[in-house]
Predict the structure of LacI family transcriptional regulator.
Amino acid sequence: MTASIKEVAQRAGVSLGTVSNVLNRPDAVAPQTRQRVLDAIRELGYVRNDSARQLRAGRSRTVAIVVLDVSNPFFTDVVRGAEAVVEAAGGMLVVCSSGEDPARERHHLDLLEEQRVRGLLITPVGDDHHRRLERLVARGIPVVLVDRGSGQSNRCSVAVDDRLGGRLAAEHLAAAGHRRIGFVGGPLAIPQVADRHAGASEALAAHGDGVELRMFETRSLTVAAGREAAERVCALPAKQRPTALFCANDLLALGALQGLTVGGLRVPQDIALVGYDDIEFAGAAAVPLTSVRQPREQLGRTAAQMLLEEAENDGDHGHRHVVFQPQLVVRQSTSGVGRPQTT
Amino acid sequence: MTASIKEVAQRAGVSLGTVSNVLNRPDAVAPQTRQRVLDAIRELGYVRNDSARQLRAGRSRTVAIVVLDVSNPFFTDVVRGAEAVVEAAGGMLVVCSSGEDPARERHHLDLLEEQRVRGLLITPVGDDHHRRLERLVARGIPVVLVDRGSGQSNRCSVAVDDRLGGRLAAEHLAAAGHRRIGFVGGPLAIPQVADRHAGASEALAAHGDGVELRMFETRSLTVAAGREAAERVCALPAKQRPTALFCANDLLALGALQGLTVGGLRVPQDIALVGYDDIEFAGAAAVPLTSVRQPREQLGRTAAQMLLEEAENDGDHGHRHVVFQPQLVVRQSTSGVGRPQTT
DNA sequence: CCATTGGCTTGTATCGTTTCAGCAACCGGG
DNA sequence: CCCGGTTGCTGAAACGATACAAGCCAATGG
């Protein structure tokens, strides 16, 4: 059914090794022999068997990236960045989504380990993954943490300063005079969420005089969760209700925007809204969203580069921790007045 | 470095085959032997080598899906549907993005063929892929066309009726009294685009009396391309300018919305806008978008089911062609009056 | 004219699994 | 006491590719 190198050899009247040479070191084969082999390959429709290659070589050319949610445009942009780098290097990037579920994450890691992937980019779900990743590294599979700083010095990481991002958002709101601010996000086990919250908290504490940060925890970082959180906000009596919401990502913010509108609250007149990530859709929302921008594609590119670099110099390799700075993009959802902007 | 089955066998004091049995047919091994083997596995941190497994088995457990654009929420939803089915069956789904580029598509297919994937879900870029896919099928790799009907009877397909979708959109606009309608989409080599256009064209022709459908071709189906098309529209003198735009997908429509706003045209008062796909962000846009809804996740689920089914019954298998019906969802971008809706 | 070189090619071992025929020990029935 | 049937395990043969030592032959140099 599927021709192997042996049949190609037979047909071309050469030995196994020669065919292999044609494939891998064409210059080491005499031109006319090479041509005969190439003809045979074409005639039989021969295609290399990667399993065999990998088995022999002991390593694969595929790199995996495990993200929290493929449907989140933030991650698809990260993936695109990583993809570009990996493909340029002749590899293949496989994308797995943990869906914020530690069990699925583990399952994916199991499979990827069995496949002996060349390296792993991961945005881990919780905090209990250290031993697991440790083991991969010990096995010679380099790991780069994405969108997550690492205290660990035995692996690289690429992150954006989430505390700073949280501070930027909170300071912006506090400066606009908000005193009751709500934080929408969760699960708190996700470090990015915790850090953004911590940053906001920090900034408000520094601000002094009873600025309050109230937590509206969500079960996931999705539009639906944002809508649901907004319902809780709307249900509060006006006196207790926050006058501004800081959402842990833009999906939540977009959901919250919908939920608030349904609940009869106007953004930003009745309640201001800040998102996080500045995904492409944030600026195009019903009320264009103020958001904390992250260098999404660059995150992916840098992570992939570091990974490939580590994969080359098998073994010794100075682990680096790159931290990018987020940037506040102010739009209508916090600006009180003004006309729609579309950047 | 990485333990193999042989070392496990040695440590447990049994033969190779026994370890393999513990892994694959645990009941065929005496409980205490089994335990010894399991202990050895744990102590050595043994992990199966999938390459070797695949090589021996001649087939892999991974299924691939090749989509036009991972950043398009339509496709991420399709992917999620497919993923759910494949994972439930114990497999793994690898996602590749062709970026609407035939060369990249070919490259991915090459790699996937080398990997001897179990099956392939694909939304092909152009129309010249038949021979290519044919070859995969001949090799025993089942192929299911996604979001694309197939005249071919030797493979399955799952699609949504794009001509009908185009008709729905165009009829809606014509019924609202629009006489100069613009179609924004491209490249036309993408069958979905061509079909949606054809459907619209058809509906308007049936409508008679000089209703005009003018083409604004784009280079891709992205937000940026939509913005750029809107600039072209804005540049036209008011008399020639369409009073409505039908965009081949929601990304284009969202981009167009931004471009039109920047160009000083109001949606829907000055120009109406219809998108396609009804992605989650369509309803949350600055002006909630009227759009043609497709059953996105179901598309993926059905495709994956058909693929797995075909992969089971190696060989004979009745190829099916499932066609879903799209559905027009009317929102503010074509409704002239009314208040924001958020569903 | 022999030795040496260098260009091409061959054959074989190897990677880590799974599979399968075969062997040893044991059991109960005739 | 032997025989057929289990049960539990072993050992070797694949799977398809790559690497590498070794061989062959013609050409080159002394």
